[in-house]
Amino acid sequence: MGWWLIGIGIALGASGFAGVLGSLGSALGDGSTTAPHSTPATFTVPLESGDWAVYQYTGNTQQVGPVTRTSNRSVTLSARQVTITSPSGQAITATGSTVNETITLDGAIYTAAAIFTVAEPGSYRVEVTKQVGDVRVAPRVTSIFGGAAWWFVAIALGGLLFVAGIITAIVGARGSRTPPTAWGPGGPGGPAYGAGPSPYPPGQPGYPTGPSTYPPGQPGYPTGQAPYPPGPGPWTPPSGPPGSSPWGAPPAS
Q1: Mean of pLDDT over the chain
Q2: 245 in a structural domain
Q3: At 164, is the pLDDT very low, low, confident or very high (cuts 50, 70, 90)?
Q4: Does residue 112 form part of some domain?
Q5: Which helix or strand (DSSP H or E) is residue 166 part of?
Q6: Is residue 54, in this structure, part of any structural domain at all?
Q7: In a domain, 117, yes or no
Q8: Dist. CA 37–CA 65, nearest whole Å
Q9: Nearest to 169 by CA among 13, 9, 6
Q10: What are phi and psi of 137, to 5 degrees?
Q11: Exposed, middle or buried by CB within 10 Å (0-12, 13-18, 19+), for 236?
Q12: What is the spatial distance between Cα 66 and Cα 243, in angstroms, rounded to a whole number?
């Protein structure tokens, strides 16, 4: 049973991990369909329904041997400097991000500067009026992880099953090494080996206890019914006339 739980836990955890990676890759892939735009810029990007953000390039990561070096700075673009227009020409309000949301694409770090919600899919016009370097439109990090929530649940459940399987396997291995209990011929509760069976049913009131097989009056022996008749009393010499010998011999002179 323990090994089955371990196997199921590993499989479930691996599936959840692959699902998370797939969700992240799919979401970031949608955002990277539009090449980075150098600001100030106006461009059109196809978007699906959901939460999106305009990300500003803020730093990069470099691999130097076994060490990864990261250089990043704060955003300088505000939501007031970003204008989003829907396919129908309606302006969509953008707001600043209240959390630090960053994505890394090909070593480049982008930080969310303005966030907005798309109600219907279509081609949206994005205008950035301030020169802040490159910008990119991509799904919000919070929405990416929200879409992968069930995969995180699968990872957690797989971990619990894995731990439960290990515990069950250890307990089962210890139990298999416990020596068996030696029962008597009567099974549990019966007499031990070498003890003769009782001629009477056990625990039945009113049955005789059998005569004693030991001489009476001996300390330490049972006091049951005596198997022998009582012995004669103490010896006394025969009586005769005063001065005579008790055995008929002439009296001493």
Answers
A1: 74
A2: no
A3: confident
A4: yes
A5: helix 149-176
A6: yes
A7: yes
A8: 31
A9: 6
A10: -100, 130
A11: exposed
A12: 135
